[in-house]
Design goal:
The chain starts with about 25 loop residues before the first strand and ends with a helix. Strand 1 (about 25) and strand 2 (about 30-35) form a beta hairpin. About 25% of the residues are buried. The protein has two helices and two strands, in the order E-E-H-H. It has helices spanning about 50-55, 70-80; strands spanning about 25, 30-35. The protein has a single domain, classed as Alpha-Beta Plaits, CATH 3.30.70. The chain is globular, with a radius of gyration of 12 Å. The chain has about 80 residues and is an alpha+beta fold. It comes from Pistricoccus aurantiacus.
Length: about 80
């Protein structure tokens, strides 16, 4: 699953630089995650880095975007090949 940022986000800006795929950016009110670029850090790290640094724990899995580890790895390979 791609990750998502909930409205509990406090715009602290610690997650954006941690994303190895550039999937996190400032939205209109809070930070947002581009699900086409989010691999939950599969291929880069063992755990999603944005979740590790978020001080308010507002980055859960997006239940509307289920993806297996294999699908996330395939997405990682496409992103890094580009």
């Amino acid at each position: 699953m791609a990750l998502m940022i909930t409205d509990e986000c406090i715009n602290c800006d610690v997650c954006e630089p941690e994303c190895p795929n550039g999937a996190i950016s400032a939205g209109e009110e809070i930070y947002v995650i581009d699900p086409n670029l989010c691999t939950e850090c599969v291929g880069h790290y063992d755990e999603p880095q944005c979740q590790q640094v978020c001080p308010v724990d507002c980055i859960p899995l997006d239940p509307e975007r289920p993806e297996s580890r294999e699908e996330l790895m395939a997405k990682y390979e496409i992103i890094t090949a580009a």
